[in-house]
Amino acid sequence: MKKHLFIYILLGAFLTMLCISCKTENKGNGSTRILTLGIRNESNTFSTLPTTEADFKTLRGQDVLKDEPWAEVCRNEGVELIPTLHAYAWPGGIVERTIFEKYKQEILDSIKNAGHLDGIYMDMHGALHVEGYEDAQATLIKEIREIVGNDVLISGSFDLHGNLSPDFVKNINILTAYRTAPHRDGNETQTRAITLLIQAIKEDLKPHIESVIIPILVPGEKSITEVEPLHSIYAQIPDVAKAEGMMDASIFAGYCWADLPRSAMRVFVVAKDEKYADIAKTKANNLAQQIWDRRTEMKLDVPEGTIDEMIVKAGEYDKTVFISDSGDNTTAGAPGDNTQVLEALIKYNSKDAFVAGIVDNDALRKCVETGIGKDVNVKLGGKVDYIFGKPLQVKGKVIYLSPDSILKTPRAAAVVDIDGIKVAIISTRRSFIEVRDFTEIGFNPLDFKIVVVKLGYLYPELRDIAPVHLMALTSGFCNLDMRTLPFKHVSRPSYPLDLEMNWKTP
């Protein structure tokens, strides 16, 4: 009997050592398996324009990995990737429930059929909101966790304008966000998320996240990382991430045009293990308190005023002036069909201006029917944003139409000359954020005195070339004055809705 017992003990010890050996060997021979997924959208809850299936661009399988630096990192590390659905929609209104549930189910089914997984990478934005859901992001990751259990590590990359709730964070192991606004480090952030995940898997880490919610609602235009006060605070992130026991740190400016309890600024610090929790919490508190203490310094970094004031001010310069129609900022979810700036330009008899652009597929179709070189009389805009905008009757000459091959795509455009004001009329809600958006329709923005864009801050390429930038404080779903928006569900008190409030880190 004792002899048999001894044999069983030896056999058990041998099998245990074999398992450990196999586990170590698997991590070293390239058998690490990481599944990838993503549903990315920045959802403006004030907008009247829902985000539908037609708004999403979807990639699956190997198409996900094409030309992606983070995928190249995995190949170099010998990691096997299992890419599932990656869906992305331009910022818009609340996402329709049916499409989210369709995408969610496809992802969950893919995970169930994926076999053994060591990790999951989530390519997200962080400000997704879905019709009928309190927190669709939290629901998604909760259902993923229910399938894979607690041993599979989950890492995610996010836009710094995301709003991640505690219910979401409790089910993720590693998270990291952009460190620049305007955004210049998207690829770097995705690569960092996947690199940290591979590190955690190979070193058998048990990452721990500490977070601080800062009760501030701030638009992106007042939380630019290239200027103070946030420039010097964001500059501390790399040193925090390199500290003993730490993996990464992120500051989320948050997404303020979402009337939700989770809308706020946040700091996250990811530690290698829970034993470093106190250090991580201290570092998160330090960053958060600095932000709070300098909250009143978060202001626009360019001259601001009414559209009338900005048109007049543009006359003070002998160079091209970019004017942001900030209330109708399509990169933050606005519809892009408000005509108030065009109406003001006409009133001031502007003769050397370019409006880029107004979304109106009906007006575009009429321009196509009219033809290049002919006069067109059209009711423009005000069809989607019927709260802040109204249709504007205009008469002008069609001077540009996209080629036939482009007219059937989302980049279809017409340009109408209205007494010296060139207006780009586009078929879908997109933004002129790069020089090519202008040149592909035959114009150089620097050839004009005034260039109006449906943006808040200028995206990097335009920001780098713009001689002058002015911010028109126009009305719309992306109004830069938080106190004018009809918030009902955000957690209170919150700055600047409650100017006299006091707050200190926990």
In whole angstroms, the N-to-C terminal distance is: 61 Å
Strand content: 15-25%
Round the Cα radius of gyration to an integer and report it: 26 Å
In DSSP terms (H or I, runs of 4 or more residues), the helix count works out at 16
Largest sheet descriptor: 9 strands, mixed
Uncertain ranges: 1-30
Question: How would you characterize the overall build of this protein?
Answer:
This protein is α/β, with parallel strands linked by helices and 506 residues long. It is built from 16 helices and 18 strands. Helices cover 31% and strands 22% of the residues. Strands 10-18-11-17-12-16-15-14-13 form a nine-stranded mixed beta sheet. The chain has a six-stranded mixed beta sheet with strand order 2-3-1-4-5-6, sandwiched between helices. Strands 7-9-8 form a three-stranded antiparallel beta sheet. The N terminus is likely disordered.
Compose a concise summary of this entry:
The protein is of the alpha/beta class and 506 residues long. 31% of the residues lie in helices and 22% in strands.
Features:
single chain; 506 residues; alpha/beta; disordered N terminus
Give the topology, please.
Blueprint lengths: L1 H27 L4 E8 L15 E4 L2 H4 L3 H8 L3 E10 L7 H16 L6 E5 L12 H13 L4 E6 L7 H4 L4 E4 L8 H17 L5 E7 L15 H5 L2 H6 L3 E7 L12 E7 L5 H17 L10 E2 L1 H8 L6 E5 L14 H8 L5 E7 L1 H10 L4 E6 L11 E10 L2 H4 L5 E6 L2 E6 L8 H5 L10 E4 L6 H6 L2 E5 L34
Parallel strand pairs: 1-3, 1-4, 4-5, 5-6, 10-18, 11-17, 11-18, 12-16, 12-17
Antiparallel strand pairs: 2-3, 7-9, 8-9, 13-14, 14-15, 15-16
